[in-house]
Amino acid sequence: MPPSLTGLLIVLTWVTGLIEAVSLLALGPVFTAMQTGNVLFLAFGLAGAANLPALSSALSLAAFAVGVVCGARMESATEAWGWRWVECGLSAEAVLILAAAAVGWDVAPRFGHPAPAHLLVTGLLATAMGIRTVTSMRLNVPGVPTTLVTRSMTALIGSSALGHDSAFGYGTGAWLRRALAVLAMFTGGLTGALLVRDGWTVGGLLLPAAAVVAAVAVVHRLLPRAHTG
Q1: Long-range contacts of 211-216 (CB under 8 A, 24+ apart)
Q2: pLDDT (tens digit, 9 = 90+) per residue, 193-219?
């Protein structure tokens, strides 16, 4: 796998950390990429536990599903036409994140009982993350799924001197990209949390994410055609 492609996916993992910080801390409690959390939030909310609202989680799950359907159809059709489907997926993601930034430009972060603007931003972000997940899975770079790091952490620890499991690549250099994926998610989340703490609006928080995804799409276009997945 070309190092340049792996590097771009590491950057996208950082973006996911930033977006999930915005989703959870400024729009939530809700996730827009890591849908396992929403399945549980929805269950807890329906049970009336800890006063967790179920609406945001249900909306995110539905919007994510729409994103997956749109991403799968768009990227498979684009590939059939002979176009570079990765850039199409990333461009669509960037446009949706930019739209979310526009909707949330003057919207203050709120945790719990979101306003309509918060819900609209959540839906746009979840749709974007559904498309991203399709893009990541079609590229299928081991250890860098870009929207979650549980498998990356498991493989990283399993292939370490402590885990010593050859099934996870013990003794190979695979640990580096896994470690970078985990670090990227952490630093993205840390960046987002610090910006939320500093009082940035929802739109201001999302604008850098949209810019980075758009830049990744442009850089990916410079890669050799054989590296498009």
Answers
A1: 212/11, 212/14, 212/15, 213/12, 213/15, 213/90, 213/93, 213/94, 213/97, 214/90, 214/91, 214/94, 214/98, 216/8, 216/11, 216/12, 216/90
A2: 999 999 999 999 999 999 999 999 999
Say how far apart CA 107 and CA 15 lie, in whole Å.
Answer: 20
Domain containing residue 90: 3-227
Q: What is the CATH number of the domain that holds 182?
A: 1.20.1250
Pick from 90, 108, 100, 98: which is nearest to 60 by CA? 100
With 0-12 CB in 10 A as exposed, 13-18 as middle and 19+ as buried, what is 178?
buried
Q: Tell me: the pLDDT tens digits for 25-82?
A: 999 899 999 999 999 999 998 998 878 888 999 999 999 999 999 999 999 999 999 8
DSSP assignment of 22-67, as one string? HIIIII-S--SS-HHHHHHHHHHHHTTGGG--SHHHHHHHHHHHHH
Asked whether the bond before 29 is cis by omega within 30 degrees of 0, the reply is yes
In angstroms, the CA 105 to CA 8 distance is 27
List all residues 6 or more positions away from 42 whose beta carbon is below 8 Å from its beta carbon: 54, 57, 58, 61
- Of 221, 220, 226, which is closest to residue 9 (Cα–Cα)? 220
* Residue 189: Cβ within 10 Å count: 20
